[in-house]
Amino acid sequence: MKIKMIVTDLDRTLLKDDKTVSNYTLHVLEKLRERGIPFVIATARPIRTVREPLGFLRFDAAVYHNGAVIMAGDSLLAKYGIASPTSIIAALLKDRPEINISVESNDRMYSNMSAEELWPGVQYTMTVDFHETAGMIADKILLEANSPEEMAELEPYVPAEAYLQLSENSVAMMMDRQATKLNGVRILAAHYGVGLEEIAAFGDDYNDIDMLTACGVGVAVENALPEVKNAANIICGSNQEDGVARWIAENILTND
Fold first, then answer.
1. Which of 30, 68, 98, 197 is 20 to 30 A off residue 4, Cα-Cα?
2. Which residues contact 22 (CB under 8 A, 6 or more apart)?
3. What are residue 119's phi and psi, to 5 degrees?
4. Contact in structure between 233 and 251 (CB atoms under 8 Å)
């Protein structure tokens, strides 16, 4: 099957550990665009942490916030959020006053912890009771969790219309059930007139698994979690070795 769209996670997949990409990767991605193959990023990052610090990266469309915001160019195609985040947070803080929480809403972060310890360089508003988020719709609520077992302890606080997803064994992301990378990819596939079987997807973390298994070709980078490697069709080189770009060059550009 001819691949007609590329989708990739960013951190620890396309990006090197220092959050850059090589000139080789930039060259390969430009060749993709010249051939009319849409290049899509699918990330848990909010918009501001992609467009500003990663301005060197050109892409046609994006799945932000793990699927809460889907954009083609500058056009918003879909947005999913959690209503009344303050009530959820109040219940958590009542039972677990020590828990570290961050809320993403309207491309701003509100946090009761030193968020830069988890996300160096992040800009955020320090808060205690999250009263600033009253009346807002949250793109996602981030809860400290260092394992699937710790995340499971948070399940009683999740409303029926939401779910938890562990990220990098450090944070549980609470999001609307429609906010997934796979759902974002489905929306963009329809936008570009591409079938899922015509997409090659790349990832490294738990939140990439559905995307990798549903697309025509699911590729895990060598540094991916074991669960992600097991779910993938193919293992490519690591993020430090330009694995995504080298796989594209060897399997897409040479056959196009």
1. 68
2. 16, 242, 245
3. -125, 85
4. no
Query: Residue 233 and residue 214: Cα distance in Å, rounded?
Result: 11
Residue the block writes with tokens 């990266």:
57
Angle at 126 between CA 125 and CA 131, to 5 degrees: 85
How is residue 78 written in tokens? 């879909």
Cα 202 from Cα 3, distance rounded (Å):
13
Report d(CA 118, CA 121) in Å as an integer.
9
> In 131-242, which ranges are E strands?
137-138, 140-144, 162-167, 171-176, 199-203, 217-221, 234-236
- Closest residue by Cα to residue 125 from 144, 107, 110, 104: 110
| pLDDT tens per residue, range 7-45 | 999 999 999 999 999 999 999 999 998 999 999 999 999
